[in-house]
Each structure stands twice: as C-alpha cells, then as structure tokens.
Amino acid sequence: MQEKLRQFQRYLDKAGLKATRQRELIARAFFATTTHVSAEGLYRRVAGRHPRIGLVTVYRTLKLLKDAGLAHERQFGEGRALFEHASSEHHHDHIICTECGKITEFENYEIEALQEQIVRRLGFLIRHHKLELYGLCRECSAATGAGQGIQTAEAG
Amino acid sequence: MQEKLRQFQRYLDKAGLKATRQRELIARAFFATTTHVSAEGLYRRVAGRHPRIGLVTVYRTLKLLKDAGLAHERQFGEGRALFEHASSEHHHDHIICTECGKITEFENYEIEALQEQIVRRLGFLIRHHKLELYGLCRECSAATGAGQGIQTAEAG
DNA sequence: AGTGATATTGATAATCGTTTTCACTGTCGT
DNA sequence: ACGACAGTGAAAACGATTATCAATATCACT
Ligand SMILES: [Mn+2]
Ligand SMILES: [Mn+2]
Ligand SMILES: [Zn+2]
Ligand SMILES: [Zn+2]
Q: C or N: which end of chain B has fewer Cβ atoms within 10 Å?
C-alpha cells in the first residue's frame, strides 16, 4: 500500500503532474479496496470523510492510476465500469454471476496459449483480450433451483 | 432471407404482435447485411429509401429480432452495440482490430471445453460467455510498422 | 368492407455513466 | 513569497439507448 502510493507519486512527478491532497486521498482509498470497485463506489468511500472531493476528480484520478499502470478498468456487461488493482501478479479473467453480481477470478494458461495460436494463424498482433463467463454462482443456482445437471456452454 | 423473414413473421404472430410495414422493412434490411451492424447503421440503410421510419423503431425491431432468436447483440469495447444474424450455425468469438475496426470471427472447440472445465470446477452454471481478442490486423500492423516478432498475449 | 380495441409509431424528452467546460484554487520551482 | 500553470468542482455536455405520449395503423370480428 505504502509502496503503491509511492509508485503513484513517482509517476506523477515523472509526468510533470502535481501531487495534490485529493489525488493522495483517492489513491489511498483505491489501494485500500480489495475487490472490484466503481468510480461512484470509490467516491462514496472518499466522500464519507472528505466531502469536498468531487466525483469528477475520482474519475480523473482513476484515469491517472491506469496511466501509471496501477489500475485496470473492467467493463462487465453494460453499465458502470469497475476498477481493480493492477497487481504485478498474473493476468486473470472473470466469471460473473448474473443474479447476485459476484465476481470470481480465474486464470488458465492453456486458454491463453490457444488464443496465441489462433491469433498467430490469422496474422493479428494481440494487444489485450477479454474473457468473461456469465452465469449463476453455486449459491444462486441452488437458490433458483436450476438443475445441477451437465450444462452446455453456449455463448452470445 | 425469405425464410428468415417468414420466421420473423411467425414469431410476431405467435407473440400476438402486429406485422407492420416498418418491421418488415427493417427486418429485410437487417437480413440483407453480411457483417456486424449498429442500430444507427441499419437505420441509415433503411432511412435512405424510407425516410418516414424512425431510429427508435429500428431499436425496437432489433430487440424483437433478438427475442425471436434471429439476431445477436454484441458489445465490443465501449460505444455502440453491433448486431449480427443469429445463424443456426456455430457459436463464434471475435478478434477486433483496434486500428481499423475490422472484425474477424473464429471458433475454437478446445477453448470452449476448457471454459467448461473451469466453470464446473467452480460450481458455476454458465449462461453465456464473451471472448474478444483486441489488437492489430495484418494490414494495420504492417502499416504501423509494428515488429512482426512473436507477441505475448497480455490482457487487460 | 367496416368497426373498434389496442398495438405501434415517431418526435421528443429522459436516462445514466462519463467527459468537458470554465472560473477559481492549489502546487511547486524559482 | 511569487507566479506560472496544473488541478479542482459545479454544472453542463455527451452519446447511446429507453421511456412518454398523442396520433396512427393493424387485424379479429362482424
Ligand atoms: Mn479481477
Ligand atoms: Mn460475429
Ligand atoms: Zn450469485
Ligand atoms: Zn486493422
């Protein structure tokens, strides 16, 4: 957390940007999150104790955090974007429960490798990809009484 | 095309909806497309010869076509949605050129199978998925002079 | 073919997350 | 401390899509 804050300060300095009170507060709140958070959600966390900060500045600071390589922006389905730490850890993809909104992360080397092959075959140069599985989590599928039989992945 | 139109008419009839002049014109224009088209794009095609049709009706008819199982709606990146025929053919995923917007389709059974495994392991019940690869197509990567060396898929 | 209940249309306004604008304020190198 | 200029926040703008609503078209039933 302290290290990430320092990284952010360093980025601002190198980019000739100013280290403002608001930026530090927002970055601190962001690094304190452990899940996927929306701009609005982060705003509420910050505004709780610092009412003078505007939602616009949260949007702007999140963009800076992305530029600094410290945040990833995700667009699940429609609606608002969610942000999460851009850990130096592994890349991961997501499973989203369409009922309760729960987001589960996973990583699968084989899928990534297969994507590689496909792309190379087609002559593309891949920059990034998006793999999202939508469905019901264990709890929600139990609750809605959906059969637990074998399900065929069919996509949209 | 004639068959798809008939399917649409049948759907409208069964759902107690009316077969209007506008719906037929819009459906006809949609079935005449061969690529991914936006609501606005389809509207322009129709409005060319039938200026009395409104964009709103295009949106509404596209929703009906989806409900009838004849169209798929895709959300690539941000911005407007694109629609394409929901052929009875195989499911497919997409590669999108971030430079020129070209969309290439592909299907890979192994990836689908791996997704199955992951999901089953996590206890989810999958409804649909989204796999999109973003990068430069052959032409654009040549034009921008990006090296043709081996590229590592790294995702966002 | 005519009637009437009601589904549909299209112009317009509303929505919603995000970005721009702009006058005022804060930061930081000097 | 000064001053250039980047940053802030309130409000307005944005862009794709959806809701409203009065006027119109469809179609089952005569
Ligand atoms: Mn994540
Ligand atoms: Mn397609
Ligand atoms: Zn759930
Ligand atoms: Zn291209």
A: N
